[in-house]
Design a protein that fits this description.
5-stranded mixed β-sheet, mainly beta, single chain
Length: 314
């Protein structure tokens, strides 16, 4: 069942001050702590050849997407397949949308409201694939949530208040970036200073309204950011060209850099723990709840593209 919510758009020109401040160039200090995942902490959808876990809520429910059979990719590079919700007891519910080539759930709050996006192949259109955001309630009602005027929309995270963070680009491809949706009102976010257009990715929002993500700078390096009270704080791991923050709780975030997957302390802007998959390859942590449980993805061999999901309590 599909519906559509009433929405109000805040024009870009009216929110130029949102994120206009910046505190940048921080190098995140690290500790030597290492978390080694065990095979027993891997979580796969039964029968799936690849499972990608993207978020976890405070009761331990996770969401993601999966593939059955050989990996087949959309024209934009994402693996085709449905999404899933896995309850804390291990029950898996599949989420699919008729006509979609790919469905992915990227966030879930404690009320069980999940958000994500789906793609539709549009070979006759200006782009080969079109993306739409959607919200799913615990009783299975799906509501399409697109930024009006956008050519593509994707919902990436939701907090316990119901605030949503996402990404978009306009139909004519002239503008692309991130947005926050609060109480039916979209606010488009100004890019961090020095960001390459179309290369800013807001992916998480916590109950305090802090937004996490990453962007590509003019030098080609990828930098992590937090957006708090209209001010960006940017930072990177030591001696790397890529640092990205993913999901966050009210005090910590998870992310990845060239040095590996990590847990990040928001107050001190420091990396506290690196995470390795079984066999020593570094993990891709994607979400962390307020209990400290971390969810994400692992590969078990350097030449193996399929992913396995994981859930771990440090």
């Amino acid at each position: 069942m599909f519906g559509r919510r009433a929405i109000v758009v805040v024009p870009l020109a009216l929110v130029a001050a949102c994120g206009s401040g910046v505190q940048g160039g921080n190098t995140a200090p690290t500790t030597s702590s290492k978390l080694q995942l065990q095979y027993s902490q891997l979580v796969d959808v039964p029968g799936a050849t690849s499972t990608r876990v993207w978020a976890i809520n405070d009761v331990g429910a996770t969401v993601g997407d999966f593939t059955v059979g050989a990996l087949v990719f959309t024209d934009s590079g994402g693996a085709r397949g449905p999404a899933f919700i896995r309850g804390p007891g291990g029950t898996v519910a599949t989420v699919d949308i008729p006509g979609a080539s790919r469905v992915s759930l990227r966030g879930i709050n404690d009320a069980g409201v999940a958000v994500g996006f789906y793609s539709v192949d549009t070979p006759q259109g200006p782009n080969a694939v079109t993306y739409h955001g959607f919200e799913r309630t615990p009783d299975g009602v799906i509501t399409v949530v697109d930024l009006p005027g956008a050519g593509d929309s994707a919902l990436q995270g939701i907090n316990n208040i119901g605030d949503i963070v996402g990404q978009y680009d306009l139909a004519d491809q002239s503008v692309g970036g991130s947005f926050v949706l609060k109480q039916g009102r979209f606010t488009t976010l100004q890019d961090p200073p020095g960001a390459v257009p179309f290369n800013v990715f807001a992916v998480g929002i916590n109950d305090l309204g802090v937004v996490s993500g990453s962007f590509t700078g003019l030098n080609g390096n990828k930098h992590a950011f937090l957006l708090r009270g209209g001010t960006y704080t940017t930072f990177e791991d030591t001696r790397v060209t890529t640092t990205a923050l993913k999901g966050l709780n009210n005090g910590q975030a998870v992310g990845v850099s060239d040095n590996g997957g990590f847990v990040f302390d928001i107050a001190t802007l420091s990396i506290t723990t690196f995470i390795d998959c079984p066999g020593g390859l570094f993990a891709f942590p994607e979400g962390i709840n307020n209990q400290g449980q971390i969810a994400g993805r692992c590969t078990l061999a350097a030449d193996s593209p399929p992913f396995h999901g994981f859930v771990v309590t440090p």
